[in-house]
Amino acid sequence: MSSGFAAVKDNFPNIPEGDIGALLMRSGLIMAEKAPSTMGTLMATALMRSGKAVQGKSELYLEDLIVVAKAMVSGIMERGKAKIGDKTILESLVPAAESLESSYSAGKSLVDAIHSAAEAAEEGMKQTIHMQSRLGRAGRYLEKSIGHQDAGATVGALFLKAFSNYMNQHRDVGERS
To answer: Residue 114 is part of a domain; what is its CATH number?
Structure first.
C-alpha cells in the first residue's frame, strides 16, 4: 500500500488541475497498478468510485466529501463483497462517513469535520482488535484473528489521518470550503 500511495502522490503533477474527480479516478488506476493486491484493488475501486462521484468539480465542500465517502464505502462493499462487521477497511471508513454526515448536520467547518472523521476512523480501526475476521486471508484464522488489528481498517484510518493532517496544514483551504 505504501508503494501505491507513493506512486499516487508522485503522479499528482501529471494530472491536469481543475478536476478533482479526474485526480481521484487517475489515482485509483495508479493504485491498482502499483499495489496489485486485494487491498490495493479495494482502495483503487474506492478512489475511482469517489472520483466518478465528483467528476468535473474543482472544489469540494463538506457535502461533496460525504458523497465521496459514500462512494468509497459502496465501491468497497460491492467489489469486496464485504459489510460492516466483517473486520475490514469498512470498520474505519463507515464511521468516518457517518462522522462527516454528523458534522454536516452540526454545521462544523470542513477542517473540523475531516478531523472528526479521522478520529472516528481510528476508533473503528481499534475496534477491529476485538473482532473475528470473516473475509480474505485473515478470515482463514477465525478465532485466532481476535486480538489483532485489521490491516485494511488500519489503511482506512491512516488515509483519513493523512487527509486530516493535510487539511490542518492548509487550514486556509478548508476554511474557504
So the answer is: 1.25.40.340
